[in-house]
Amino acid sequence: MNSAVFCADIGGSFIKFGVSRRSGEVEECGKVPTPVASWQEFVGAMQYLIDTYGTDLPAGTPLAISTAGLVSPQTGEMLATNIPAFTGHSLANDLSVALERPVTAANDADCFALAEAHAGNAQHHSVVAAIILGTGVGGGLVINGQLVRGHGGVTGEWGHGAITRTELTLAGKHYAVPRLRCGCGQTGCLDMLGGARGMERLHQHFHHQENTSLDIVTGWLKGHPDCALTVNAWLELVAEPLALLINILGPSRIVAGGGLASAKELIAALDEKVRGGVLHTYTEPLLIPGKFLTDGGLVGASVLGRMQS
Ligand SMILES: [Zn+2]
């Protein structure tokens, strides 16, 4: 199907807007601030983008959306969103009525997984897991090209659930694993230690130093001992639940997204670590950075929009 689809990646700060004329390809054409407080203003912003960038497209051209938070596949209702304007709305259904066109929406991690499975670094793989190592930890699952949208829209969310380790042994010394209260209401979730903020929290925990994850990874690559301790702890803590995810799903390719995925040496180290802890013997790299580290939302939305139109 080569008819056009409008694509939008809606974040807490900006709406990125594009037109896809072929599946897996998006021409990014506009960016406006997200009206986070008002549904009416949000609808107005979407109408403006469609009117501005869709003058050559037929009336009723579908719109596909990638956004943070969970989208219930049963009701379309938004859960755990950072955009108050969405509260109480079924994003896709209500926008479809307001904008007079088919609208579909999915979580940004799910869109990243779709983008990678259809047009990125996991093409031709039947079981594709995407892991997001961003501010926190998220994920998505695509099987035989289809996005798996579990009960309540929750699939592949391996960041929530307590880390079982209470202690780490690194370079012959023992360290307690911090157990932090997570935004989901539980205590000890991987989400609090496994993303970029998590790495920074670990560094603070071990060394009482405030450093960015970029500084820590750079220091690790340069052989700085404090940074090496933090990254080695991070690798231990992330590899264990990731190995469990691999044993459960049996992916032939895992793509990493989010800010930490830009550090290819870090992803390679995590890949090596995790392949040492799973049942199946993977002789090739299993975990690699994604192709769409910055535009996975828009590209994944373009795939989603075509599947549902
Ligand atoms: Zn949690």
TrEMBL record:
Keywords: ATP-binding, Carbohydrate metabolism, Kinase, Metal-binding, Nucleotide-binding, Transferase, Zinc
Xref: Gene3D superfamilies: 3.30.420.40
This protein's record includes keyword Ubl conjugation: no
Pathway(s) served: Cell wall biogenesis; peptidoglycan recycling
Record PROSITE patterns: ROK
Top EC class for this record: transferase
Domain of life of the native organism: Bacteria
Chain segments annotated as coiled-coil in the UniProt record: none
Pfam families in UniProt: ROK (PF00480)
Classification via InterPro entries: ATPase_NBD (IPR043129), ROK (IPR000600), ROK_cs (IPR049874)
Annotated SUPFAM superfamilies: Actin-like ATPase domain
Catalytic activity, EC: 2.7.1.59
Keyword Membrane: no
Catalytic activity: N-acetyl-D-glucosamine + ATP = N-acetyl-D-glucosamine 6-phosphate + ADP + H(+)
Family per similarity comment: Belongs to the ROK (NagC/XylR) family. NagK subfamily.
Protein name as it appears in the record: N-acetyl-D-glucosamine kinase
Native organism taxonomy: Bacteria, Pseudomonadati, Pseudomonadota, Gammaproteobacteria, Enterobacterales
